[in-house]
Structures are given as C-alpha cells and as structure tokens.
Design goal:
By secondary structure, the chain is of the alpha+beta class. It contains 18 helices and 14 strands. It has one domain: 2-Layer Sandwich (Creatine Kinase, Chain A, domain 2), CATH 3.30.590. 44% of the residues lie in helices and 11% in strands.
C-alpha cells in the first residue's frame, strides 16, 4: 500500500475526525489603493488604519499605496474569510473615495507618478524596512514591486501528526514531513497557475520602461498572451536573474537553512554599482544578491513565527517548520477580498495530498523540469492539448490534472466525513470542468471579460462594485470597537519601539547582520 493510501486509510478512522476539522489557515492579501479615476493613490498610509509597522491585520508591503491585509490563524474557513472581509470594509471606510485595485498586475501608473515607498516611522527596525524597499526599487524597479498577490498559510494541528506517523514532539520529524510537502508542491505548483491564475493580461503602461521578449497581442491599452494564466508569476513579475544561480535545496531543513544563509552572503557586482550609502543615506541594506532572506523569491516557503531580532532561518533552526506559506496565488478579481471559499478548500486538498504522500528528494533534473512546467503553464497553460514533462516523459496537462483530482476526491471524502458535510466535494465539483476545458479556468474568464469591456474599464468597474459591496455589508466577525482599538494599540506600540531604541542606525544594522551569521 502506498504512503498516500495508508495515510488516507488511517485518517478515515473516527478518532482523527476532530483533528481534521482543525486545519490552520491564514491569508495575506495585497492590493493597491487607487483613486476614483483608477490612478494609483499617492497619499501616505492613513493614520486611521493604524501603524503599518505594528498593526497585526492592516499594513503595507512595498509601497505606501500597496496595502497588505492579514488574518490571524483560523480553523474555520468561513471565519477566515469573514475576518478578511471585515478588515477590507474597515479600510474602505477610512480611505475616503479611494478603492482597492482588484487585479494582481498594477493599475495604470502615469509615467510622471511615483510609486511611494512604504514608510514605517523613525525606529531602527522601521528605517530598516524602508531601506530594504529602497533597495528593491533600485534592483528591480518599483513597478514590479507593485504587483499584488495572495499568500496562503497552512499547517495541521499537532493532534493530527500521530495519524501520519509523525512524532508531534519532534521538530525534526515534523520539519521532514513539511519538506516532503514542499517538494510535492514544487512538482505540482503548475496546477495553481492553471486553475487560479488570473493575470493573462496587463496594462500596456506596465512595460513602458521595460522590455519583454514575449509575443504579446495588443488590444487598445491591453497586452495579453492568448493562453497565459499568470503573467504575475512569469519573468515579467516576481523574477530575479541574479538569483538564478542560487540553489536553495528543499530536500531537508538543514540543507535549506544552509543554502539560504549562504545566499545572503553572495556578493553581486551588479548591485554593488548602486552603492550602499550615498551622501549619508542608505540606498540598500547591502550589495549582496539578497539583502535579507525574505528577498529570495519562492512560490512556497517553510515558516516559523520569529522572535524579536531573529531571521527566518534562525527561527527554523530553533524550532523547525511551523507552517508553509503558499505564494503562487493571483488575486481573484471576482472576489471582493481576492480569494473565494472554494479556492481555500482546494488549497486544503492540494496541501493535504502533499502531506499524505512521501515525496522523494529533488534532483537537479527534477528542479529544472518543475521550473519548466511552471513557466509553460503561466505563459501558455490554456492551450488545448498542452503537454508537460513528467519524469522526463511527455504528459498531457489534462491527464495529469485528472489524476490529481482523483486523489483529491479521495481526500475530500475523508475531510467531508470529518466535517459532516460535502464542502470539499462541492468545491472540487465546481472546478472539475476546468480539468478538460481550459475555458473554465479563472484566467480564461478574466481574459474574456477584460477584452470585451476593455481591460482598464473592466477593472475599474470591478473596483467600484467591490467597494460598494464591502461598504454595504455589516461586520461579521469583528466589531468597529475592536478595529478602532487595534488601530490605537498599533500607534502606541510604534511609539514604544521608537522610544526604546538605543545607539545609531548604523550600529543597529551592523548588529543585525552580525547576528545573522550566528
């Protein structure tokens, strides 16, 4: 019996059903603030939204205009989405007539406009966060950093590990199983691009200062590839040619930590040309290929909540993997919060499948094949009869996806029984048509509707509709008092951090990077 079938047979036993209803999930949604005319908002992050440095749910990413809305961990997918919707509603009530851009690829950005880099106050850590983003601006350009996505955090409760043959007290054992999941994900991440990719097109303004070898079709101010799924995940989006030579292994936590720590110490001749500190002002944190570990672009990351002063790898080395962060998800423009409930449930099935099946170590050939499959799907995944490579052999995308859906149906039956309903089977059924018909994918719908109405007009109208929908709804999980209190608390915490600082910013950075080597 395979690992998958054996694990599934175990999970079918009633004693594991409670644990199966307690899968841990969190969502981080990025979105640009835009004016009513759909141009990028230029004003600072509103004080009424709290401190971007310390607010637990409402912050910014690269830009003052790029919001990041974060949920706590929830076991109930409905509460997860209710929390996300409540923060969206609160934001819109506090930014006047502004709206939230509903797509991953940026809105029209006037060449005379800037993309204001995020500010986090006067503390050392706040200045470091801003300096890191100034470095990103110099290295990759601000437009690339204005691309938005959805991050999905996932873990299983400790009570479930024994059913999978894992010691819940053994961090190494748990990490080993999560790294097996990471390898399974890398082999099959093209599935997420195919089903949930929602950026087959973009505004022509995105490429005005950039060149591209892609053979775009042009329609008004829209550029698109006829069979693309996720241009966000192509070389137009989150890519870094300087990182191409970095090989960060997913075969074990020790190899991952070793390789990522090495990566942040590799010097870059290209980035050294920018300098580090010019006329007393930092233009980047350092001139290495990676300024810090978070600069490594990856479609999934092993994570652990960090302690103050820790780096991500130090946290992993201390306590092992706590959860995984899926980073290959486009914003769903048909959802006011960027993601639908059925997507959350399909992600559960995909990631549980990866935990149930022990995934073999990745060879260099595997890594190259996985990357080639992903690139093929993001640029051309909806082409009828699309063929990928599976262990060196050609395989129809539809056949491969049919096999995966069959496995997920088995997982769905177990999870549905545990939950006492048909939520997972229903979610699979909703996406079943896309297996053999690429026109039923999210990207196909995006392309149809955006070309029919005009890309910019269509997106602006969606932004208007989402704003109206979110402003008219009542809070479902949080209260106005809780949200206002969280804002006040965040401002207070920022002041406390700033008042507690000692020494100079130079000394702070020197100590930080010295601690990274420990």
């Amino acid at each position: 019996m395979s690992d998958f079938n054996q694990a599934l047979a175990t999970l079918e036993q009633p004693q594991w059903h409670d644990a199966l209803t307690q899968l841990n999930r969190g969502i981080e949604r990025e979105t640009l603030r835009i004016e009513a005319n759909c141009l990028l908002a230029q004003d600072p992050h509103a004080s009424a939204l709290g401190s971007a440095l310390t607010h637990p749910w409402i912050t910014t990413d690269f830009s003052e205009s790029l919001l990041e809305l974060i949920t706590p961990v929830y076991q109930d997918p409905d509460q997860l989405l209710q929390h996300l919707a409540d923060t969206h509603s609160f934001v819109l009530k506090n930014i006047g007539e502004q709206r939230l851009w509903p797509l991953s690829m940026p809105c029209f950005i006037d060449p005379d406009q800037s993309i204001p880099i995020a500010q986090y106050g006067n503390s050392h850590i706040g200045k470091m966060k801003t300096t890191y983003r100034i470095g990103l601006h110099h290295r990759y350009g601000s437009k690339m950093q204005a691309i938005a996505g959805i991050h999905f955090n996932f873990s299983v409760p400790s009570a479930l590990w024994p059913a999978l043959g894992v010691n819940p007290e053994d961090h190494a054992d748990i990490s080993d199983r999560y790294f097996s999941l990471l390898r399974h994900y890398r082999r099959h991440v093209w599935v997420l691009a195919y089903l949930f990719g929602a950026s087959p097109s973009l505004c022509k303004s995105f490429l005005k200062e950039n060149s591209s070898d892609l053979a775009f079709t042009e329609a008004g101010n829209t550029l698109y590839l006829p069979y693309a799924t996720s241009l966000r995940m192509s070389d137009l989006g989150y890519t870094n040619t300087a990182q191409d030579a970095l090989k960060v292994s997913l075969n074990s936590i020790d190899e991952y930590v070793r390789d990522l720590r090495h990566a942040i110490s590799v010097p870059s001749e290209e980035y050294a040309q920018f300098g580090v500190k010019i006329d007393g002002e930092y233009v980047q944190l350092n001139s290495n290929v990676l300024q810090i570990e978070n600069e490594l672009y990856a479609s999934i990351r092993p994570k652990r909540v960090i302690h103050t002063g820790e780096t991500p790898t130090q946290a992993l080395a201390r306590g092992g993997v706590e959860y995984v962060e899926v980073r290959a998800l486009d914003v769903n423009p048909f959802s006011a919060v960027g993601i639908e409930r059925d997507q959350v449930l399909l992600l559960d099935l995909f990631l549980m499948d990866g935990l149930l099946e022990r995934s073999a170590p990745l060879t260099a050939t595997d890594v190259d094949e996985n990357a080639a499959n992903f690139d093929a799907v993001v640029l051309d995944g909806r082409r009828p009869g699309k063929v990928l490579q599976c262990q060196g052999q050609p395989r129809l995308l539809s056949d491969w996806l049919t096999e995966l859906f069959g496995r997920w149906q088995q997982v769905a039956k177990v999870l549905d029984k545990a939950n006492g309903d048909s939520r997972y089977s229903d979610a699979l059924a909703q996406w079943q048509g896309a297996v053999n018909d690429p026109e039923q994918t999210l990207s196909a719908r995006v392309l149809r509707e955006s070309l029919e109405a005009g890309h910019g007009h269509w997106a602006c109208e969606l932004a208007r509709q989402h704003r109206q929908q979110l402003l008219e709804r009542d809070y479902q999980l949080l209260t106005e008092a809780q949200l206002v209190s969280s804002v006040c608390d965040s401002h207070r915490k920022q002041v406390e951090i700033e008042e507690a600082d000692t020494g100079s910013f130079d000394e702070f950075l020197a100590n930080y990077f010295e601690a990274q080597q420990r």
